[in-house]
Please model this.
Amino acid sequence: MADKARIQEAVKAQGEVVRRLKADKASKEQIDEEVAKLLELKAQLGGDDGKQTFVLKTAKGTRDYNPKQMAIREKVFNTIVSCFKRHGAETIDTPVFELKETLTGKYGEDSKLIYDLKDQGGELLSLRYDLTVPFARYLAMNKITNIKRYHIAKVYRRDNPAMTRGRYREFYQCDFDIAGQYDPMIPDAECLKIVYEILSELDLGDFHIKVNDRRILDGMFAVCGVPDEKFRTICSTVDKLDKMLWEDVKNEMVKEKGLTEEAADQIGEYVSMQGGMDLAERLLHDPKLSQSKQACAGLTDMKQLFSYLQLFQITDKVVFDLSLARGLDYYTGVIYEAVLCQTLQAPTPAPAEQNGAVSGEEGGVSVGSVAGGGRYDGLVGMFDPKGRKVPCVGVSIGIERIFSIMEQKAELSAEKVRTTETQVLVASAQKNLLEERLRLTAELWNAGIKAELLYKKNPKLLTQLQHCEETGIPLVAILGEQELKDGVVKVRNVATREEVDVSRAELVEEIKKRTSES
Amino acid sequence: MTVSQIDEEVAKLLELKAQLGGDDGKQTFVLKTAKGTRDYNPKQMAIREKVFNTIVSCFKRHGAETIDTPVFELKETLTGKYGEDSKLIYDLKDQGGELLSLRYDLTVPFARYLAMNKITNIKRYHIAKVYRRDNPAMTRGRYREFYQCDFDIAGQYDPMIPDAECLKIVYEILSELDLGDFHIKVNDRRILDGMFAVCGVPDEKFRTICSTVDKLDKMLWEDVKNEMVKEKGLTEEAADQIGEYVSMQGGMDLAERLLHDPKLSQSKQACAGLTDMKQLFSYLQLFQITDKLSAEKVRTTETQVLVASAQKNLLEERLRLTAELWNAGIKAELLYKKNPKLLTQLQHCEETGIPLVAILGEQELKDGVVKVRNVATREEVRKASQKRGWGNVCSAVEKIL
Model:
């Protein structure tokens, strides 16, 4: 610090020298010489002139999580992870950035949304865009052919965040995937069962899960006269059906993507179909569709899937919907998306979906998907030098949307969200009892009880009680001069204000009993 | 075919290829993680989960909340906060928007969070990964992406209570993780600065001398002193004075003693630090964790006296006296060096908990005495006469013990 002050003084003085020389119209060489000295002095200050700037914002599209949000987040993660563990999944973690080459060529048009790291002389790196490509890399790298894994972590996308719509550039993804060659549709059915369990336990209201199959879609396009090279692009137009009306979707197909009106109409007929196993059966006998081998394979598997879903007892919320066409390129078989059925009375519009699926309209129909996924058999093979395939099926839970909903719920409900789990505040009723407070608090900590005390030598009792009210601490252990003489501690229930004297020896037991009851 | 026809078809071909995303459909196989980073496999994740659970339970037991911040900050936020280490920050590529950098630690984001939300009081923990572009030596376990686990108490409170709670938390976590024995060293910046001042270190050298002293856990005193004198330009006298202080360890008693140290007590700073240190130790006693603090050392030897020499060429005398002590049944040691420095011998006592040192010196030998010093208090306990043989010294030592 002394150094900086000295240099700052020297800078000022030298600045004066330069100014005077210029005013006196001294020779160019002289001025240049003194200016050089000035610049060198300024350089010593480290270029920030000793001023510390503190920029009080987060990067665009990112945000902090405050303690309330963290408490909600923890609850949501606990529910989800319990479900994954119940189904026997393991977890892994991967670095936040990958070699740029690893991510190149995997995301199609979305590649322009990848965050690159600056070339600082080493490897070229990019922040991960999702958890699926890192997963495929992990499997290939470790030559793993079978794994049931979940991975909850943040991913990064440089799209245009509309913060009011809740679209972030840094957001959580929560993925569950089953990799390996197995008998068809059983793992696919378990994925759906897991989505069903999680959405039920999170208590988000009614939901339903749409299912379709890439092969059925492709078969449908083929028999409707869509040229092969337009499959993917027509697919992404059909995908917009949950945001746009059919007329506009048809318009895009005909006017922008060059489809004949006839083809568009035929597609229109199919994509309005919804049902269960019965629909799959019916379509297997559809004169046009049954001409496509692909579509038949998909429909047969769809029947098999529904039979398993019946055994899992979840068909009440699953529907085979021919309009479902998820965005990402790498799906090869069954695809699915879960949507909530009702809107909340939210003051701010519901956030946009970030899984690649699309958000719904506000104030009316669905509020957007909260989970999505499907089968992708070709991805891992892309990473393996020998092209060995590892078939995969998985689901991504729309965690950010769920956080948003839970946060809104918390705001609207009367119940307070606690940000700490403290069970007892150790308080003093008179002055000069800090020692006793410290001693008792340590005793409680050593017994595993969650306890706090105020960092004040002589806090007022009222202040201590207020702290409990504000932070939701249910019990107070009050030390008082008379009570200490009598060998007891007053235990007060903050909510009911009931107080009872408990002997010091039995205090730990008593607190444990009361906190386990709640 | 005409040129224009060919061109037309070539254009279509290029357009088709472009749709493949520019990689010609050939996929490159990159099967590695970035330098300095690694995956965690399921076994590692299971261990990690256990460790996090233990640590987080402890934080929660103490009433801490948690926050999370983005993995990157605006470059400006991180600029100017890390001194020389700034060159280790990962920058994001300028892609037309704000300039961004990956977070280097969790403390600067914490400070930004407090300022941004105008928070004056919070007890928070934050467990998350941070990023540093230094040269990873994977075998030495140094990564470029690694976890930090921070706990901080922000706010104006009565002195030393939150400080004591931080130490209690460290104690609880290390005990519960079952990593074996540990100890926690405590000191105070004000005591260090006061010490430097009274030892004659110029103000502008404080920080740099401080970082040299910091190397004492890796280097021997001789080398640390060497760096202070030869590289940092301290006088040998100042270095020696520092040397005497930095070999001291203890508990509240040491703080009390130093408050009466004629030299150190001249520094107001040091006195403030020492007074707070005493207060801290009183709280730590109430928290019952002083056993793992510098105070009570668990000794591995039972040596009662070190026989030391104050000048060169006194090995013979040392050997003779040590033998006498042994013959008298007193547990004694000497350093296996012909000409050890006195400070080194005293340090050995401090480190291994030897309570007494018998110092042989040229003048004293002429006068026929041996100085016996209490290592902890540095006080001379006795000047034992050896005129009629070392036996007197032995009995003197016995009496002290």
User: Anything to note?
Assistant: Chain A is about 40% helix and 15% strand. The two ends of chain A are 55 Å apart (CA to CA). Confidence is low (pLDDT under 50) at residues 345-366 of chain A. The first strand of chain A starts at residue 90 and ends at 91.
